[in-house]
Amino acid sequence: MTDTITVTGVVGSDPKHHVTSQGLAITSFRLASTRRYFDRSKGTWEDGETNWYTVSAFRQLAFNASTSIVRGERVVVHGRLRLRAWETGEKSGTAVEIEADAIGHDLTWGVSTFTKVRLARASEGGDDERAGAAAGDGSAWPGVAGTAAEPDADAAGEEAATDAAAALEPFEPAGELESAGVAS
Predict the structure, then answer these.
(1) Segment Disordered: which positions (predicted)?
(2) Cα–Cα distance for residue pair 164/115, rounded to 1 Å
(3) CA distance 25 to 16
(4) Closest C-alpha to 120, from 57, 60, 58
(5) Distance CA 46, CA 50 (A)
(6) What are residue 168's phi and psi, to 5 degrees?
(7) Which uninterrupted H or E stretch holds 81?
(8) Which of 6, 29, 87, 175 could be joined to 15 by an S-S link, Cβ 3.0–4.6 Å?
(9) Which of 170, 162, 120, 111 lies closest to 140 in space, CA to CA?
(10) CA 184 from chain center: how many Å?
């Protein structure tokens, strides 16, 4: 059985990014999640206990997370919950880990800008480099030998121009629906 969890919290450590000898990109960081509640008797908001998680991201998510988030930022993490017992000498405990499927900034607390990355092609013939990943060589991921991710400059430029033009024109949903073949 796989347990999934979605947690909002504050990045508690600088993300650590590395690539294994097999070519797997991994980024991990600590996440602090504190429940807030309103104490009616005091008439104030109070902090509950803080839960700490170790978040691990793999492959493309690992690269994007390592270049996008920093300590102190508020994020939303969705992934698989893992509880692991550990013991070192006289100390023992339980590690609470999240293997992330998705990580993003928590827009309740601020604004964020999205930049799409385009993976470099594996060969001049135009074959998608993810074909290499399917073969298991790990070549499709940034930070792994022979690959790189770069912002999709053409798409970013087009999006910026479209956004700027849209900001100058009034929004007319009825016209957009009619042009899409939907009657209003």
Answers:
(1) 125-184
(2) 16
(3) 11
(4) 60
(5) 12
(6) -85, -20
(7) strand 74-88
(8) 29
(9) 120
(10) 37
